[in-house]
Write a structure and sequence with these properties.
- The protein is an alpha/beta fold and about 675 residues long.
- Helices cover about 35% and strands about 25% of the residues.
- The chain contains 22 helices and 31 strands.
- Helix 5 links the parallel strand 7 and strand 8 (about 180-185).
- Helix 2 (about 80-85) crosses helix 6 (about 195-225), helix 9 (about 345-355) packs across helix 15 (about 455-465) and helix 14 packs across helix 15.
Length: about 675
């Protein structure tokens, strides 16, 4: 009798620079077997091109029939990168029951930027009792807003206790504009209106980006005859269906890093480790404890914003192979600065655009003195024109001047005001800046060879001509500046890993690392009083460039650094070995003695008996969790329910205050038959 073949799983990770693919089978024991892996450049103008490049390569390498693939799972750093770089679509924020003063809390005003906001009377109190709702101002603003934004975010006061006003606003916006609407109660059951509004705003900004990613992937799979369910990794490492992720893209922030943690644990078998994943745009650092990633109960922090999204306790830093290389201003011996912005490496721009880039670099090198915009280019990202809605006149004029071929900044810009305008176009995700990066430095030194090394060397030569505070060139040769950049990247990586460790120990991580004693310890500074700093666990180094950038880590962190064999596709591998996990919450409060109010899902009900209210709450969350698990992509969910009571004792009598009921459903994703 012929043994039944093991099902095949396809993992995809769409990063800021590369799209990875891995073909994996359950055969060969608990770790399974990687049958093939490949990389392709992420193509932001059409994500399907990068996806097809990576997936077609693994199909060809393995000789696999596409029809044999039973599950496709995808992780992505696109949402994380967008928040770190301040990018996303222009959206309108609708605040119901809030005042303008509330924008100053939790970074909401900073996150909103120049996007429009509409305030409406309404909202509820802590027990779900409604104030008078008035949406007339919103209705009047919608015709104009509908033509200038890509979506809406709606947040009402105490919507987690009664979402009725959010639902009314959502329905009105959809009826008039037809645009996507995110309501805050759909994303979080936690209190804290401004932070919930912030989370909702960021979700609305990301919808078009994740929608394009999912649509591109689904379109590609259909063309290749892969009739398998498509899953997406959430920020807590769990899998959800693509349809689920489309509605709640904010939950995919830290998706790539979360998948990498799952992959790191799977590849090394280590239960306790620091995991540092370096990509093109970011370095993501987290802790494995007892074989599971630590989760952040307060919500993920990305790009300086604390969200209400439960995700791995991951610290994301704007440091990667494609980080912007800059020089400290005004110092006699200026330091090299890296990130947080991602640039298109010159080596990559040279490979794709050739003479258009190299001729400009050579022209700048012929100038007798270095220019402040040397080695910098602008080019369009290639996103659809509708995402350029709402540009000011100066922004529109500059955007029109920029094309799909890199244009040297010293030809494009004539004033500081134009430079600020360009930065706004970059923040909107409409324009890329190309310039010198650590990836270019690696090409100069022959440690990376996938792009055009000659263009990278021209960029390094230009950067080395920059002047220090004494008026001298900062480096004698392109090789010297390249080596300095790579040493800086390794040093910063060590500091970010230590910063994360200190923060997990309850300290101010950044301040502790900046302390003179820690700096002396990291430097191995000799002295009468000597200091050392050491991690209690090894580091697992992930990312295609980890073998290069992390080779010098051990003496800086006081422990070993393990770089697994398949580290270059850790995210894609982690994407296919995870589980579906979703939750549902309900609360029972007591607005007045003898009345027990249940808020669950989109309903509010009253009971006169505590036990019956709790019983109904548990039944509700079980049903909601089961339905969400089905929507998220599993038919075999196990559901666990936990109930937490808040009570007080007055004169020996128990007084009920509140009950919080949580159901967690988990199971393996459904696969094609």
């Amino acid at each position: 009798m012929t043994a039944k073949p093991h099902p095949l799983f396809l993992g995809i990770d769409t990063g800021g620079t590369y799209t990875d693919a891995v073909l994996w089978s359950e055969e060969g024991g608990p770790k399974g077997k990687v049958l093939a892996k490949a990389k392709s450049l992420t193509t932001r103008h059409d994500l399907a091109v990068g996806i097809s490049g990576a997936v077609d390569a693994v199909l060809q390498e393995s000789g696999t029939d596409p029809a044999a693939i039973k599950l496709v799972s995808m992780s992505t750093t696109l949402a994380t990168n967008a928040l770190v770089e301040g990018q996303g679509g222009r959206v309108a924020l609708v605040m119901i029951g809030f005042s303008e003063a509330d924008l100053a809390r939790d970074g909401l005003k900073t996150a909103l930027g120049t996007d429009p906001v509409v305030f409406c009377p309404g909202g509820h109190d802590v027990h779900g009792n409604a104030a008078k709702l008035d949406l007339s101002g919103l209705k009047a603003a919608l015709p104009e807003l509908g033509g200038s934004v890509s979506g809406f975010a709606v947040c009402a006061y105490f919507a987690t206790r009664n979402p009725a006003h959010e639902l009314s606003a959502r329905n009105l916006i959809r009826d008039i504009t037809g645009l996507p609407v995110t309501a805050s109660h759909e994303l979080s059951a936690k209190l804290g209106g401004p932070r919930r509004a912030l989370t909702t705003l960021l979700n609305a900004r990301l919808i078009s980006m994740i929608d394009r990613l999912v649509a591109a992937t689904e379109g590609f799979l259909t063309k290749r005859g892969i009739a398998a369910p498509l899953m997406v990794v959430r920020g807590d490492g769990a899998l959800v269906s693509a349809a689920f992720a489309r509605q709640r893209p904010i939950e995919t922030i830290l998706s790539g890093p979360a998948a990498s943690l799952v992959g790191a644990r799977h590849m090394t078998g280590l239960d306790d480790a620091m995991v540092s994943d370096i990509g093109g745009t970011t370095t993501d650092v987290a802790v494995l404890d007892g074989g599971r990633p630590r989760l952040d109960p307060e919500g993920a922090t990305v790009g300086g914003f604390r969200t209400m999204v439960e995700a791995v306790a991951m610290r994301t830093f704007g440091l990667g192979g494609d980080s912007e290389v800059a020089l400290e201003d005004g110092a006699l011996d200026p330091k090299i600065l890296l990130g947080p912005r991602r640039l298109v490496p010159l080596a990559l721009a040279g490979m794709v655009h050739g003479e258009a880039v190299t001729s400009e670099l050579e022209r700048q090198l012929r100038a007798p003195n270095p220019g402040r915009m040397d080695g910098r280019f602008a080019l369009r990202t290639g996103v659809p024109d509708r995402l350029a809605a709402g540009l000011t006149a100066p922004e529109a004029k500059l955007y029109e001047a920029i094309g799909t071929v890199p244009l040297a900044l010293d030809r494009l810009l004539s004033s500081n005001a134009q430079n600020a305008t360009l930065n706004r176009l970059v923040a909107r995700g409409l324009v890329h800046i190309s310039g010198f990066t650590p990836s270019d430095a690696a090409h100069v030194l022959g440690k990376q060879a996938n792009w055009d090394a000659a263009t990278a060397r021209l960029g390094a030569e230009l950067f080395a001509r920059r002047r220090d505070g004494r008026g001298q060139a900062i480096a004698a040769t392109p090789e010297a500046i390249a080596e300095r950049v790579l040493v800086t990247l390794t040093r910063w990586s060590a500091e970010y890993i230590l910063e994360t460790a200190f923060a997990e120990d309850g300290l101010d991580g950044a301040a502790t690392v900046a302390h003179a004693l820690v700096q002396r310890a990291v430097d191995g500074h000799p002295g009468i009083a000597r200091f050392t700093v050491a991690l209690d666990r090894p580091v697992i180094g992930l990312g295609a460039s980890a073998p290069l950038h992390y080779a010098g880590l051990p003496p800086l962190i006081g422990n070993g650094c393990i770089v697994p064999e398949d580290t270059d596709v850790a995210n894609a591998l982690g994407a296919v070995v995870g589980q579906v996990r979703v939750s549902a919450e309900a609360r029972v409060s007591q607005p007045k003695e003898g009345l027990f109010r249940l808020a669950s899902g989109q309903t509010v009900r009253d009971f006169t008996d505590e036990a019956k209210a709790i019983e109904a709450a548990e039944a509700d969350v079980r049903a909601i969790a089961a339905e969400r698990a089905k929507d998220a992509g599993t038919d075999s969910a196990e559901i666990d329910i936990a109930t937490e009571f808040k009570v007080s004792t007055i004169e020996g009598q128990r007084m009920f205050i509140e009950a919080h009921v949580v159901a967690v459903a988990s199971g393996r994703p459904r696969i094609a038959v």
